[in-house]
Amino acid sequence: MVNKERYESAKAIYGELGIDTDAAIARLKDIPVSLHCWQGDDVTGFDHDGPLTGGIQTTGNYPGKARTPDELMEDMDKAISLMPGKKKLNLHACYAIFEDGEYADRDKLEPKHFAKWVEFAKARNMGIDFNPTFFSHDKVKDGLTLSSPDEGTRKFWIEHGKACIRISNYFAKETGVPCVMNIWTGDGYKDIPADRMGPRMRYKDSIEQILSEPYDKNQVKPCVESKVFGIGVESYTVGSAEFTLSFAATHEGCLPLMDNGHYHPTEVVSDKIPALLCYYPEIALHITRPVRWDSDHVLLFDDETREMAKEIVRCEALGRVYMALDYFDASINRVSAWVIGFRSWQKALLNALCTPNALFKKLQDENRLTELMVLQEEIKTYPFGDIWAEYCRQCGVQEDKKWFEEIVSYEKEVLVKR
Ligand SMILES: C[C@H](O)[C@H](O)[C@@H](O)C(=O)CO
Ligand SMILES: [Mn+2]
């Protein structure tokens, strides 16, 4: 059977459950997902030569890492050509592009240092999300930035945050798409601290100072990302879940950002999404795959990934959740890592849109839980692959099995020559 016939047959099967697969495909094409630039170069950036710090780590030494803005853009273009769906570009401040020997430290960054990225995004019809970079820098003092007891250090990082607000405002104006600006720091202590509240009060004040910088409240969406622990920061994290949720709840316009690698291993973000949606008009996500801890493995189409997407869809919250990918693997082809992760999240969203959510809710409300279990199990073996193949076809990208051939050629022709 050719693909089109397979799609028609799958469409009829889903149709019996009241699912309109054409509508699901059309809807997904319009939903932006933010693609993180830092998968392409192991979270290095262009403004320093030092190691990756902040309690995060990339492992592996696969050949072909992007070393310059041009290489990173070239790799991203290759990846994008193999991903269906609408993309946004997610940048970190350390990816500033300096020209003609110019350099600006993080507290002095200006929109002009990101002009090339704006050009790149506009040419591809993408909005831009942004992240101040509070790590991999010699002004991280004793592992602390915004919560440092040293006023000079704290001031430097507050100025960095303010510069990033101005840059986010510029991104939104230039692209016409709201810019999600996420504040994450690795601030914390390896061992048991003597004062847990002091750093948090300083952190609160620092973020408040950053957010006092004028910006268009409809166009820039500041977020605070929580974390349970990092490498070398095992005992105490300043920006804990309780801290960031409370901060966002009490500061209008500030969104909570949940990274699903940032919780205890038995906690699931799929359950936290509807809880937060009861209270916050908008929330943000970093979507990753934690293996035993915040390992930032490449996202796959696994159970929890599917469950997170299902929650967003069945809460009718596609317009209220800003979705960004956040993982980094240096042990495999990096372009492939981008593609697998992005396609996995697209699959998860499409799968969620092809789930009979109204029917399942009805069964739950009528306490027909056996029937609910049976149907939830059976739909797992429905011909979803045929719907996915049709989505890829309509988006003009290679279907599964085929896209990897292009990666193999790209590796031979471009990556290994670096
Ligand atoms: C590079 C990102 O900002 C970083 O991954 C952060 O979002 C995070 O999740 C740290 O663990
Ligand atoms: Mn994250």
TrEMBL record:
It catalyses: L-rhamnopyranose = L-rhamnulose. It is found in: Cytoplasm. Its EC number is 5.3.1.14. It comes from the Bacteria. GO terms for cellular component: cytoplasm. It is an enzyme of class 5 (isomerase). InterPro entries: L-rhamnose_isomerase (IPR050337), Rhamnose_isomerase (IPR009308), Xyl_isomerase-like_sf (IPR036237). Coiled coil: none annotated. Its main location: cytoplasm. Mn(2+) binds at residues 262, 294, 296. Its cofactor is Mn(2+). It holds the Pfam family RhaA. The keyword tRNA processing does not apply. GO terms for molecular function: L-rhamnose isomerase activity; manganese ion binding. Binds 1 Mn(2+) ion per subunit. Keywords: Cytoplasm, Isomerase, Manganese, Metal-binding, Rhamnose metabolism. Catalyzes the interconversion of L-rhamnose and L-rhamnulose. Belongs to the rhamnose isomerase family. NCBIfam families: PRK01076.1, rhaA. This is L-rhamnose isomerase. It comes from Anaerocolumna chitinilytica.
